[in-house]
Amino acid sequence: MFAFLRRNTPIAAALALASALSWAPAVHAQTVATVNGAPIPQSRLELFMKMLAANKQPDTPEIRSRVRDQLIMNEVVVQEATRRGLHKTPEIAAQLDMQRQEVLVNALAQEFARANPVTDEIMRKEYERLKQAAPAREYKARHILVNKEDEARDILAQLKKGANFEKLAAERSKDTGSKGRGGDLDWGPANRYVKPFADALARLKKGQTTDAPVQSDFGFHIIRLDDERAPKIPTFEEFKPQLQQGMQQQQIQKLFMELRAKAKVE
Questions:
Q1: CB 122 within 8 A of CB 147
Q2: Mean pLDDT along residues 156-162
Q3: Which of 7, 119, 167, 175 is deepest in the core (most CB within 10 A)?
Q4: If you ran DSSP here, which 8-state letter would residue 180 be given?
């Protein structure tokens, strides 16, 4: 249906929603076309142009023409599907109902967000709280993870004799996420890791390797601290968009949970 569009483009995504909504009856003064007597409302085209604009797509006559052509195609196909009664089959009816619910859920969330904006004052308080809670240090560590303590001690013995840590990690570590990088875990605070690992890491000095295997629920670790630093904390302005989005989502989730608590469910 969208042969002229690449998959996952903003235009394709908008038009995909068009096909889901085009079955809904409506009366509109302005239309972009009429297909077998059924009008395609101008408001539908404007909705998708607005969605494209939110994805940084330009509003050009060419794109409007492409959207119009696809809306016409959608209407032709939907009319045929309706003629065949597909919208009445249980599975399709359920899908249409779920899409309707999703649209209304999003509409309520957006209306609530507009009516209850997260102010700069509230965000600054949360920013300061998060800033105070930020870890004092970040660590760049490597590790080798094995199942048995004897194996871990054997690896430690090889390291003490001058064996290459990265090579042993690649050969013997069972951590598939880091072994391909020589055991590199990249930068992160100690509290990213399980407690035995975090405690051992915090005791190490730069360039030092644990002198005994560290046991966790995952197995036995040999840990090397490559570097450490004070974390770079973004400024309020840098963090503001992410903070605003997160706090709005929390408010919306709270509203939904309150509605759920009030609902009579049998």
A1: no
A2: 96
A3: 175
A4: G
For residues 51 and 18, give the distance between their C-alpha atoms in angstroms, rounded to a whole number. Answer: 11
Look at residues 188, 186, 183 and name the one whose alpha carbon lies nearest to residue 164. 183
- Report in angstroms the alpha-carbon separations of 107 from 103, 114, 246, 252, 262: 6, 11, 18, 12, 20
DSSP state of 31: E
Please indicate, yes or no, whether residues 253 and 213 belong to a single structural domain of this protein.
no
- Assigned domain for 92 exists: no
Better pLDDT: 116 or 10: 116
Helix (H, G, I), strand (E, B) or coil at 26: coil
Asked if residue 159 lies in contact with residue 209, where contact means CB atoms within 8 angstroms, the answer is yes
Distance CA(88)–CA(122), nearest Å, equals 49
Q: Is the pLDDT of residue 28 over 60?
A: no
Residue 67 lies in a domain: no
Are 238 and 127 contained in the same domain? yes
Q: How many domains does the chain have?
A: 2
Would you call 9 helix, strand, or coil by DSSP?
A: coil
pLDDT digits (tens, 9 = 90+) for 199-208: 999 999 999 9
CA distance 77 to 72: 9
30 backbone φψ class: left, alpha, beta (φ>0; ψ -120 to 50):
beta
Rounded to two decimals, what is the model's pTM?
Answer: 0.64
Q: Is residue 184 part of a domain?
A: yes
Expressed as residue numbers, the domain containing 215 is 135-229
**Domain identity same for 186 and 169:** yes
DSSP string, 112-171: HHHHS---HHHHHHHHHHHHHHS-S-EEEEEEEEES-HHHHHHHHHHHHTT--HHHHHHH
Same domain for 257 and 178, yes or no, is no
**Looking at the structure, do residues 222 and 239 belong to the same domain, yes or no?**
no
Residue 190 lies in a domain: yes
